[in-house]
Amino acid sequence: MDLSNKVAVVTGSGRGLGLAYAKELARHGAAVVVNDVDAETAENAVATIESAGGRAVAVVAPVGSADTARRLVAAAVENYGRLDVMVTNAGILRDKVLWKMTDEDFDAVIDVHLKGTFTCVREAVVRFREQGAGGRVICIGSPAGQRGNFGQTNYSAAKAAIVGMVRTWAMELQRAAVTVNAVCPVAVTAMTETIPLFEPYIEQSKQTGELPALIRRDVGMGTPDDVAGLIAFLASDAAADITGQAISVGGDRLALWTHPQLTAETFHDGGFSAEDVAATWNDSLAGRLESVGEEFPEELTGK
């Protein structure tokens, strides 16, 4: 996992998962552009990386606009001469049920997660193509984007769309030797600590220093550091043949999400009227309906 000749941008890397990614990339030798909206947080992240012997600079700016994307890529080029890896991690939450979610709640999340991913990857890819030496794009998705999550219309929509963009970009950039993958992390962060289902286990872990096997293995949830290794791997030359994938990681579990597939089908000559659908539905499709939301072990949910 030698990344000593690589330069990476990690958006939203002042704390939490993003900081874990930046530290791990730097630990393997990459120079890192750290990004956060708070100057002190960003500078503290840079200091943490440098104190461990790494190289890092900070760009303080909110992700979303094309201007911020240009600043991030420019910082990599101006300080280290090139760009090799773009990790789009920046995100915010504005959780509310549909009938209470405002336009502002929706737009804010879409702007940071979805548009921010688009603008940063677009800017990075322009640089990759100019350099002519390939590149790595690692977009951060979420299980909420794969299966939905109560109260997260905006977040689930953004994360699902990110995986859709990843699949498209993987095709578009294959000839340029640029790999594009989505990572769907599951980790204990400030955003997950308050989820009632996990709260008692997380509180217990603060006393013991460990999460139980039920959480680490069966739920696949761990620490940000448990996720960071996958980011470094995907940034490395060892992952040159991996592209267009949605990869889940957390705790003791590493897994691949399937791409959507047709799970049941039926045919009717001349097409389907409403009556034809009604006549065939129960026999052909009703038994193959998909569940919604994440599914957790019975020991955790009590169901």
TrEMBL record:
MF GO annotations: oxidoreductase activity
Q: Which organism is it from?
A: Nocardia speluncae
| Gene3D superfamilies the UniProt entry points to | NAD(P)-binding Rossmann-like Domain (3.40.50.720)
**What top-level branch of life does the organism fall under?**
Bacteria
User: What does the sequence similarity comment in the record state about its family?
Assistant: Belongs to the short-chain dehydrogenases/reductases (SDR) family.
List the protein's name. SDR family oxidoreductase
The UniProt entry, under Pfam families, shows: adh_short
Which residues belong to any copy of the Ketoreductase domain?
Answer: 6-189
Q: Which UniProt keywords apply?
A: Oxidoreductase
